[in-house]
């Protein structure tokens, strides 16, 4: 068995993915301040080009604010289908070559290359894969190569845009040391501000603080942050094909042909699995509906969809599938809904067509469900009539 200290982990990240995808469709957009997101008065920025970032624009910013900062910016509404298709294309190229990979979001991948140095050389192999992806897709992509997932991700961020970086085994701490603390994953603006108030500006200073003291300051996250500051991360690369689906089904006490009741059940179940999806910070790329008739004949139908975590989009697809599936017009014993092809990402991709209010509404609803249970708040369609 290979020890964790000997690992070789590559992190791939498609640079400004949504922006790069739009530039594939229209080459004239390259080098321009480009915003991808909602076009309505309440729309938000899902992604922005490096040229737009120079004006202080960032993702999740209200589109109105972004256009005030950069009036000459070009806006595109986003193309779920095209982005999902490109993501799947990159996934396919990685799957063909990598011995073990994890798709952590629509545009990020971790590859476990442990042991490959004996035969190919991990850096050479990874560089060749990067060139292949860029040649086959036309998309810029960066990677970091290190002994663990956390350091490789930081290295990728340092290599952007459209670059690559390798951190030699044993050099993790010295690589991280001069960086500001907010370069570390898990250290957001609020945590970084708290650390700076205590005089902790760099990762080096953070790494020298006794773990017990950090735990006293930050709670249980203190130990995790200390490990990151010291370049320690034993998180495994989780094989993509082992990603679990999320589903639920209901066997009725009495077989039914009541379509209104069946549709209410589908709404209820979709909201349940949608909430679980967002709780896991995931997006779904495939929806399956299951139907069992009173004679125990069971049928299923699935549809590949653009990655989403939004109930209203999932509900539309579930209803569409059910209406195609239910063609025998006989008593129904069971219905079920399952989400699969899961990747990380949550609200990011919803920003193309969701307003600030819609995103805030989902966050508020999920907060209530987290406190009191998913069934505590549901759409009116689930109420009995």
TrEMBL record:
Catalytic residues as annotated in Swiss-Prot or TrEMBL: 108
E.C. number(s) listed in UniProt: 2.7.7.7
Keywords: Cytoplasm, DNA damage, DNA repair, DNA replication, DNA-binding, DNA-directed DNA polymerase, Magnesium, Metal-binding, Mutator protein, Nucleotidyltransferase, Transferase
Short name of any one Pfam family annotated for the protein: IMS_HHH_1
Cofactor(s) the protein requires to work: Mg(2+)
PROSITE patterns to which the protein is assigned, alphabetical: UMUC (PS50173)
MF-aspect GO terms: DNA-directed DNA polymerase activity
Reaction(s) catalysed by this chain's protein: DNA(n) + a 2'-deoxyribonucleoside 5'-triphosphate = DNA(n+1) + diphosphate
Location relative to the cell: Cytoplasm
Coiled-coil ranges per UniProt: none
Every UmuC domain range: 9-188
Cofactor note: Binds 2 magnesium ions per subunit.
Amino acids binding Mg(2+): 13, 107
Site (Substrate discrimination): 18
Uppermost EC category: transferase
Entries under CDD domains matching the protein: PolY_Pol_IV_kappa
Main location (coarse class): cytoplasm
Family: Belongs to the DNA polymerase type-Y family.
Subunit details: Monomer.
Protein purpose: Poorly processive, error-prone DNA polymerase involved in untargeted mutagenesis. Copies undamaged DNA at stalled replication forks, which arise in vivo from mismatched or misaligned primer ends. These misaligned primers can be extended by PolIV. Exhibits no 3'-5' exonuclease (proofreading) activity. May be involved in translesional synthesis, in conjunction with the beta clamp from PolIII.
NCBIfam families attached to this UniProt entry: PRK02406.1 (NF002677)
UniProt protein name: DNA polymerase IV
Lineage of producing organism: Bacteria, Pseudomonadati, Bacteroidota, Chitinophagia, Chitinophagales
């Amino acid at each position: 068995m290979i020890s964790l200290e000997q690992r070789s982990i590559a992190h791939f990240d498609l640079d400004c993915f949504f922006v790069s995808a739009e530039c594939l469709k229209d080459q004239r957009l390259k080098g321009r301040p480009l915003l991808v997101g909602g076009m309505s008065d309440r729309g938000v920025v899902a992604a922005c080009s490096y040229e737009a970032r120079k004006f202080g624009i960032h993702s999740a910013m209200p589109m109105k604010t972004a256009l005030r900062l950069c009036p000459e910016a070009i806006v595109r509404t986003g193309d779920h289908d095209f982005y999902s298709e490109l993501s799947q294309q990159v996934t396919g190229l990685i799957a063909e070559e990598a011995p073990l990979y994890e798709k952590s979001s629509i545009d990020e991948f971790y590859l476990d290359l442990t042991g490959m140095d004996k035969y190919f050389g991990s850096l050479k192999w990874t560089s060749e894969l990067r060139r292949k992806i860029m040649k086959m897709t036309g998309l810029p992509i960066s990677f970091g190569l290190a002994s663990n997932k956390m350091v490789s991700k930081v290295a990728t961020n340092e290599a952007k845009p459209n670059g690559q970086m390798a951190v030699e085994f044993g050099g993790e701490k010295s690589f991280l040391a001069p960086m500001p603390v907010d370069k570390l994953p898990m250290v957001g603006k609020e945590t970084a501000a708290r650390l700076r108030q205590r005089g902790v500006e760099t990762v080096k200073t953070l790494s020298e603080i006794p773990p017990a003291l950090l735990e006293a300051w930050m709670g249980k996250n203190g130990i995790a942050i200390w490990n990151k500051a010291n370049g320690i991360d034993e998180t495994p690369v989780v094989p993509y094909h082992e990603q679990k689906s999320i589903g639920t089904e209901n066997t009725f006490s009495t077989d039914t042909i009541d379509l209104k009741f069946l549709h209410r059940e589908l709404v209820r179940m979709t909201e349940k699995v949608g909430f679980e999806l967002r709780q896991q910070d995931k997006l779904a790329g495939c929806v399956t509906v299951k139907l069992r008739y009173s004679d125990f004949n069971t049928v299923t139908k699935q549809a590949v969809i653009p990655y989403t975590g939004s109930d209203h989009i999932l509900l539309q697809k579930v209803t569409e599938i059910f209406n195609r599936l239910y063609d025998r017009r006989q008593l129904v014993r069971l219905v079920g809904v399952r989400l699969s092809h899961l990747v990380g990402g949550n609200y990011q991709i919803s920003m193309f067509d969701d307003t600030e209010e819609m995103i805030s509404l989902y966050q508020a609803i999920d907060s209530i469900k987290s406190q009191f249970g998913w069934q505590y708040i549901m759409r009116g369609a689930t109420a009995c009539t």
